[in-house]
Specification:
alpha+beta; 2 helices; 28% helix; 28% strand
């Protein structure tokens, strides 16, 4: 046997780095998408509570034909009329 015959190339079965980053990015996007389901406070009265986390800072208001998105900014509720 010659030296050339003794040398073998070893190929490791390691996933591509770019593929791993794509999968991680997809998982992060999915996680953030599902976190938005926490924003589900709504009602027919104006919000008057103090939000305890980020998701409680948003409130959907519906009263008859009036639709508003309330947002808590610096402990003050502001709204945007939705049409």
């Amino acid at each position: 046997m010659t030296k050339k015959e003794k040398v073998e190339k070893i190929k490791y079965d390691v996933p591509d780095f770019e593929e791993q980053m794509k999968v991680q990015g997809d998982l992060e996007l999915s996680r953030r998408f599902f976190e938005t389901y926490k924003i589900k406070k709504s009602g027919a009265s104006v919000p008057n509570y103090a939000p305890k986390n980020f998701y409680e800072q948003f409130y959907l208001y519906k009263n008859g034909a009036t639709y508003r998105l309330y947002i808590n900014i610096n402990n003050d509720w502001k709204y945007i009329a939705l049409t």
